């Protein structure tokens, strides 16, 4: 047995990060998420598949809460940078919409078509695009509250210093890519040493916006650790941070809290962040 990271060999690392193996019948869970998302799309005014770049996946959906000049909540889906799409988890927008946010659901090019550095750059390009607002959505100069789940939480943490962003909500964020590079998730990502360093938010805690780091208490221990380590590092650096532990929630359950207008994550975010 070859120990690779924190006492774990390759098989243990695989088990430590494979969220879909940690719950029974993931296909049924995903199908439920997709059905809830389709219902939200049908019930919510907005515009679908607007483009922010030339690659096929460089697109986003804009959903309106119906309030003129509403702040913007940008949500980045997870899937370990290689699976899923914005349509899978759109239902999570229910909570922000009900609390008076317009919502942007972000899509990005997945690995192995895109490298980690390219994926990170795409989210930056989306934020630049929303700030410029060539589509006339009214997003220019509106405060952007950036959020994402899992891989999307990582991408949120990577852009918490973007000039258009006023707050960040990183949900179950993967902030250190070293263990990712040592397990089966790297088969498609093919992370370089440079990417592991520069694209690991835990290694680069710089000045940024008020940030909520959230994780479910029933998630895999490595995800809980990564969220805790990032919150602690931000706090030690004097960054405005709130760490939310969601009781009894697993990796996909946490999005139910975001979809709830009275959920804890949105309450904490609005308590620490400017509107």
UniProtKB/TrEMBL annotation:
Instruction: Give the transmembrane ranges.
Output: none
- An example Pfam family from this entry, by short name, is BD-FAE
Q: Which UniProt keywords apply?
A: Hydrolase
Annotated signal sequence is none
Domain BD-FAE-like: where?
A: 70-159
Q: Name one GO molecular function term.
A: hydrolase activity
The answer to whether keyword Hydrolase applies is yes
| Protein known as | Alpha/beta hydrolase
Species in which this protein is naturally found: Burkholderia theae
């Amino acid at each position: 047995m070859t120990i690779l990271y924190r006492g774990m060999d390759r098989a243990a690392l695989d088990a430590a990060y494979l969220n879909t193996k940690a719950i029974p019948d993931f296909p049924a869970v995903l199908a439920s998420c997709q059905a809830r998302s389709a219902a939200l799309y049908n019930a919510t005014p907005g515009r679908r598949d607007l483009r922010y770049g030339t690659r096929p996946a460089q697109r986003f959906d804009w959903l309106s809460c119906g309030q003129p000049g509403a702040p913007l909540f940008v949500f980045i889906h997870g899937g370990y940078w290689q699976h899923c799409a914005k349509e899978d988890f759109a239902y999570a927008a229910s909570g922000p919409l009900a609390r008076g946010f317009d919502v942007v659901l972000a899509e990005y090019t997945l690995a192995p078509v895109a490298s980690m550095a390219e994926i990170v750059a795409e989210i930056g390009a989306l934020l630049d695009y929303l700030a410029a607002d060539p589509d006339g959505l009214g997003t220019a100069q509106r405060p952007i509250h950036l959020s994402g789940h899992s891989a999307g939480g990582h991408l949120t943490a990577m852009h918490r210093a973007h000039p258009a962003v006023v707050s960040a909500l990183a949900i179950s964020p993967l902030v250190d890519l070293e263990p990712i590079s040592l397990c089966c998730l790297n088969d498609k990502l093919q992370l370089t040493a440079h990417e592991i360093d520069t694209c690991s938010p835990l290694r680069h805690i710089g000045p940024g916006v008020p940030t909520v780091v959230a994780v479910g208490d029933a998630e895999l221990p490595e995800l809980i650790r990564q969220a805790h380590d990032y919150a602690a590092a931000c706090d030690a650096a004097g960054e405005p941070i709130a760490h939310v532990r969601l009781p009894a929630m697993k990796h996909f359950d946490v999005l139910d809290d975001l979809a709830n207008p009275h959920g804890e994550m949105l309450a904490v975010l609005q308590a620490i962040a400017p509107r």
